Amino acid sequence: MRVAGLISGTSVDGIDVAVVDIGDGIHVVATATVPYPPDVRAAILSVSNAATHTSTIARLNFLLGELFAEALQGTGVALNSIELIGSHGQTIFHEGEPVEFLGRKVASTMQIGEAAVIAERTGIETIADFRSSDMAAGGKGAPLVPFLDYRLFRHPEIARIALNIGGIANITVIPAGAKPEDVIAFDTGPGNMVMDAVAPPFDRDGAKARAGQVNAALLERLLADPYYHRDPPKASGREQYGDEFVHHSNIDIATATELTARTIALAIGRYPAAHEVIVSGGGAHNGYLMERLRALVHARVTTSVECGIGVDTKEAILFAVLAYETFQDRAGNLPSATGARKPVILGKISRGTRPPSGA
Amino acid sequence: MRVAGLISGTSVDGIDVAVVDIGDGIHVVATATVPYPPDVRAAILSVSNAATHTSTIARLNFLLGELFAEALQGTGVALNSIELIGSHGQTIFHEGEPVEFLGRKVASTMQIGEAAVIAERTGIETIADFRSSDMAAGGKGAPLVPFLDYRLFRHPEIARIALNIGGIANITVIPAGAKPEDVIAFDTGPGNMVMDAVAPPFDRDGAKARAGQVNAALLERLLADPYYHRDPPKASGREQYGDEFVHHSNIDIATATELTARTIALAIGRYPAAHEVIVSGGGAHNGYLMERLRALVHARVTTSVECGIGVDTKEAILFAVLAYETFQDRAGNLPSATGARKPVILGKISRGTRPPSGA
């Protein structure tokens, strides 16, 4: 079955598209990243977790539906060869832990990019809003990527760790011959977020970090943060490593890169049986960071490219795979990763003009 | 198939529930209206078409999901006897006509009341978000009720008009032996909105209007509004008859009631072949208004109660019926009413824990 996955991440750069053939395995047919027009990006940032007018969110929801449909059309893959679309949309609010709200405890999330528009423009059945079903079942709505890691990287005889270095870094630990409930996933700490803030827009290939000098005293102090030494499950908020962290610590790029590598290595070090660490995310492009990881980690460090998965398109592939699971009436969350009470069928289905053949 | 319908209208009073058995006909099993807690109602009004914080909309969406599920549970109908839920949710923004937005023409709508929460709490497959699919196909996302009017009131030999007197009044004209494309639906003008504003919270049974004196000069001037004389399709915005209208015209309750009756009668008068007018909505409780309608209209005036449909629960029944249509992979919009380019399957499907048997 040919399925498309669509997502725009929290960096709000643009729409990642992956078209994959799913059967016994997952074969990537096409990928693309379509940048947002600057005014659209500005509008998304202005409504994300901020005060705004309801009309702006409603209009942006429908506008993003158009842009997501066009991003898929732009891949050049014939629409009539695609049977299903999984669209994550654009997160504008996410609060995985319940807060007190009008006398109740409420966790909530909000993705925009109207699936009815995507289904109508493409004619293809479209599944969206994957996080809310997990949260309705008591989960944090994240991370969802361990489900794909498990599918892609599970091995009968060797233990593997999938490491994604986005703004925050997180790992999925997949023991040898693991069952879904054996999978462990958590945030290790900073990914690119601190490095990018110190050397904007980013330290190409880690050149500045390589040329710099690590502030050993500062590094030691930061590594003493109990978060790094606590047992999972655990999640680092994105607010944890933002402007305030950078300002307050007065950290330099060499120390930021070393902190990132060392906190990842600390997390991986908890799993001495792991034979391989498979890296994806923007951080996989940072040659110096990868070098430091190889020096610090006991396991073989490689990237998802070796498994046919581009380091930047894993999440778009994830939503194609999750749509396929929902289409097959199968659960797509891993309760051991999200904290949900049980596995649930994720997403909401908008019918297209042609029903999927289910081939 | 036993299906539940859930809606909270723009008056934001509370959640209307209808449980219906759908087969050859539509048999109402139970209905209920569950008022919102005052702080929830205040929160909904504060985010409706207003400046707010994104977090408030996101949290309210999940909270309303809980309240909608509880409203259904409160009917006492065994949940395991219900196979499907259609939930309209609570509209907090609706703009049926496209506006210029970031360089594109965008029409949009936003209903909240998270369907994933309803599906999880009840275990029942839940279909929601009915208006967006019609709008994606170029429709105004409203009115949807003519679909139900057509189903309920179509007659092989007599022409009927379904009149709903909510805040705004609207009619559905169903010619004798009509096909879906023969149905005409439009807003006639004010419903309860002006009367309620002049005699808050409402003029019980029209007693104040009956005792008052119609200001003939003002009535004449208001009836000259070209809207009432224009051919359909046409829609009156709710903003048209709000505080400004009341203030500016300095209208009294007797004249407001007469204006409502006369504008409805003007619309109905366009269809001299109509034999019956079937009234629903809160205005059907206003004895004096009904009396004036009977005097002004050539056709027999009755209420939907005669057809087994409570005047206050027609919309909840509508969303049960629309969910059933979607479940059967059938379109649920009437393009002649909404202006859509074509009939489309409405809504987004959230899976429950038990699949519907489709009985």
Describe the protein in words.
Two copies of one chain form a homodimer. Chain A is α/β, with parallel strands linked by helices. Chain A has two domains: 2-141 and 319-350, Nucleotidyltransferase, domain 5; 145-307, Nucleotidyltransferase, domain 5 (2-Layer Sandwich). Chain A has helices at residues 38-47, 54-73, 115-122, 130-136, 145-153, 193-198, 207-211, 216-223, 243-249, 253-269, 287-296, 314-327, 335-338, and strands at residues 2-8, 14-22, 26-35, 51-53, 84-101, 104-112, 126-128, 159-165, 168-174, 184-190, 274-280, 300-303, 348-350. In chain A, strands 1, 2, 3, 5, 6, 7 and 13 form a seven-stranded mixed beta sheet that branches. In chain A, strands 10-9-8-11-12 form a five-stranded mixed beta sheet, sandwiched between helices. Chain A is globular and about 60 Å long.
